[in-house]
Backbone:
């Protein structure tokens, strides 16, 4: 699986670059600002997601000018399930309660901070050590000058619940439906390495 993910990452990076350089900005393949749209449907404790995030995504995020040509979005929900619980929703994650905690922290970081300069570096840092999301979240927030208290309050409250519902709906609307994670969509089309 590791080789498949490495090949997949190379293909995604190549597709992004080729699409950017071979299509005009009026093309439906690019966003309004001329970028290739890449959506990563993921979950915080999935071994394949961790490998992809710690390797290919981290490399891409640190590549000069990659973010100038790529409109990247992380959707931290994956294979979770939801059930309504009064006015809130309860979420059950594939890898347990701890994964739901990680997904919520990532969702709140995405929604409460600048995506490229703060949330994504924070998430890359958070995913480097998934032993204790609270302790790692505090370390990463401190490293990037983020308000850990605001992120944690969001993740443990109704605000985070609202964000997870948003990501649940986005994941459930995928066509074709995702069959595994990481699930990568380039310009609104699922892309595979096989």
Residues:
């Amino acid at each position: 699986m590791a080789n498949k993910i490495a090949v997949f990452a190379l293909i995604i990076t190549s597709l992004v670059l080729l699409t950017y350089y071979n299509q005009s900005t009026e093309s439906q393949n690019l966003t309004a600002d001329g970028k290739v749209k890449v959506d990563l449907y993921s979950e915080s404790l999935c071994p394949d997601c961790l490998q992809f995030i710690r390797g290919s995504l981290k490399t891409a995020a640190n590549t000069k000018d990659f973010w100038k040509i790529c409109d990247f979005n992380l959707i931290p929900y994956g294979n979770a399930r939801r059930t309504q619980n009064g006015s809130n929703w309860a979420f059950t994650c594939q890898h347990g309660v701890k994964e739901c905690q990680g997904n919520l922290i990532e969702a709140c970081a995405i929604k409460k901070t600048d995506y490229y300069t703060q949330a994504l570096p924070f998430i890359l840092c958070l995913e480097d050590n998934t032993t204790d999301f609270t302790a790692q979240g505090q370390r990463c927030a401190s490293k990037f000058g983020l308000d850990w208290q605001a992120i944690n309050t969001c993740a443990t409250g109704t605000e985070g619940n609202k964000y997870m519902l948003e990501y649940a709906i986005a994941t459930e609307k995928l066509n074709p439906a995702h069959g595994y994670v990481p699930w990568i969509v380039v310009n609104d089309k699922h892309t595979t390495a096989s």
In short: Residues 2-22 form the longest helix (21 residues).
